[in-house]
Amino acid sequence: MTPVPQFELLSRECDRMASLTPTCLGLPVPSMPGWTVEKLIRHVSFVHRIAVAALETPASEGMAKVVGAVTKPGRGPQVLDDYRESAARMLAAYRAVDPTREVATWAGIDSAGYWIRRQLHEVTVHRFDAQDAIYECGGAEPESADPVGAADAIVEWAEQFLTRFPVEKLSAVAGRTVHLHTDDGTDAELFLDFTGDEVAVSRLHRKGDVALRGSAQNLMLTVWRRRPLDGLDIVGDRAVAQALYDGIQI
User: Fold this and answer.
1) Distance between CA atoms of 142 and 225, rounded to whole angstroms?
2) How many whole angstroms separate alpha carbon 247 and alpha carbon 164?
3) Measured between alpha carbons, how far is 63 from 122 in angstroms, rounded to an integer?
4) Do residues 200 and 180 make contact, with C-beta atoms less than 8 angstroms apart?
5) From CA 62, how far away is CA 64, in angstroms rounded?
6) Is 187 buried (19+), middle (13-18) or exposed (0-12) by CB count in 10 A?
7) Residue 215 CA to chain centroid, in angstroms?
8) How far is the first Cα of the chain from the last one, in angstroms, to the nearest whole number?
9) One digit per residue, pLDDT tens: the chain, 250 residues?
10) Which residues are within 8 A (CB) of 205 and not within 5 positions of it... i.e. 6 or more apart?
11) Radius of gyration over alpha carbons of the chain, in Å?
């Protein structure tokens, strides 16, 4: 997935987050114990501000300098206005930037397109968090994610996060392999290999010790621990799937 369609989806997801109402701010977030919707919105606003600061800071100065330049949003009912302002500023900045421009990122120096993708998946998952909180209290079900965007979120989770996860924390899946496969026409396939000294991820169709299959949305929400494993089709050693689910807390 390229930066242009990612940006279009990011704009849509920001609109969804911005449409939340003050009445939901005090609701607990089921997937994030101890968090309220207000705290969640403040977090996403802060992350959007980091993405803007990454454009304003020389890439060579790194993320510590980027984060140090960002002011945290305040508390209270104004968090929604703060979010709308932060999102609008971020979208304007990334609409104007060359996506190939080098910037500081959490993965070292990369292109500005990194941040478009990261913000898309950040706000999508947290938008589900907020709408899940509303649904738990009798509100509407969460709006569906774009399938292609959700499939890309799975790839990002595996290639950008899982490969940097400390191997010593994955002893329960050491020596094992996992196959992820979307079954909704998005055709995302990933082979997760825990047999070496580092986690290896490839976009291959290979048989693993266990296969996890589901729609891109369900698989995305499951790898990010927003949905239980039971929502997926599990073929093979379920214990490996459970160990992966329990062990990868990013």
Assistant:
1) 16
2) 14
3) 17
4) no
5) 6
6) exposed
7) 16
8) 23
9) 999 999 999 999 999 999 999 999 999 999 999 999 999 999 999 999 999 999 999 999 999 999 999 999 999 989 999 999 999 999 999 999 999 999 999 999 999 999 999 999 999 999 999 999 999 999 999 999 999 999 999 999 999 999 998 888 889 999 999 999 999 999 999 999 999 999 999 998 999 999 999 999 999 999 999 999 999 999 999 999 999 999 988 7
10) 179, 181, 189, 191
11) 18
Taking the C-alpha atoms of residue 72 and residue 87, their distance in angstroms, rounded to an integer, is 14
Task: Tell me the residue type at 95.
Answer: R
Residue 93 phi, psi dihedral angles, 5° rounding: -65, -45
- Residue holding tokens 């790898």? 223
Angle at 186 between CA 180 and CA 188, to 5 degrees: 30
Domains present along the chain, CATH in parentheses: 3-143 (1.20.120.450), 151-247 (3.30.1050.10)
Closest CA to 116 of 141, 99, 134: 99
Q: Whole-prediction pTM value?
A: 0.96
Mention every residue, 6+ apart, whose C-beta is less than 8 A from residue 188: 151, 152, 154, 155, 180, 181, 182, 216, 219
Structure tokens at 33: 């114990």
